[in-house]
From TrEMBL:
Organism expressing this protein natively: Aphanomyces stellatus
Transmembrane segments: 61-81, 93-114, 126-144, 174-192
Membrane topology value: Multi-pass membrane protein
Protein name per its UniProtKB record: Uncharacterized protein
Tree of life domain: Eukaryota
Amino acid sequence: MGATGQKVRRSPSSMQDEKDNTPMHAGFTAVPSKEDPILEESYRSARLSCLQFVDSRKWHYFLMFLLFVDFFGNCVAVSFTSQDNFHKFGLKARLASSGCAAFYVFDMFIRLTSLRAAMFRNVPSVFDLLALVLLGVSLFARFWKADDPKKVWITEGGFIDKYDTIRSYKSNQIEQYLTAVYCFFVAIRIILKPRSRTFSKKLHKYANHDNLRISMSSLRASLRRIPGITAVAVEMMETDLVIICGRDEGNMSREELMQFLQKALLYRPKDLSANAFLAHLRDIDAQSNHAAYGAFDVVKSTFRH
């Protein structure tokens, strides 16, 4: 360097020993995150709360009760009527089914918003969604082809054999058959609903990992105890930590921890494998709104995702 060059010194980090001779280098500027972590965490917390609501016991049994009443009521209407008199009960049955369908759509909308792509990893959930769509189509057909005594149209048909003429008559009043199809899809949903709920309930505990707050001080302490780690490597990892998090103390999110670990693996000792390096991070403390987690849970969940 020229004689006019200026030396820039950086104050020792909290991870550096007093007797460490780590060379100092130019300072750096933390890169701000593009997304607001508070808003992102609030959004995920809202999704989890909505999912827990639709998976709660009260809501589940309320919805199952509606499905049963909807199925039983329409089955009675179909069983004890005929094409000639179904129009007397058709309007009431359609309105009752429409009220129940409103709750079905609300429940499925909350599930799709909360689970998003994860919902399509479960076969019963996919078929439950398909059954709801077909249920809605059949309900629309019931309104479209509603029986009306003023619009009865009877078609004569049949065939002639060598002995006699066999005649048949067909009516355009087919709402009774459409109601039977509607009952079939309601029955499918009664079968699939508990299975899809079981799948989504398993995701509750994994969703809590998205709200984990990992202590940065415990991470620093764990890094210093890794055997064979050099002071220069520790200094570089601390630099990456501050750049990723935008701060040098407090807590970090699971995404920030994952980004840091991917970079930190580059500074591990040559004779230390990646699994052994991560195994030494046993003092990382993390907590959510409901529970506390150890390093094993944090690291395992991070790399599973």
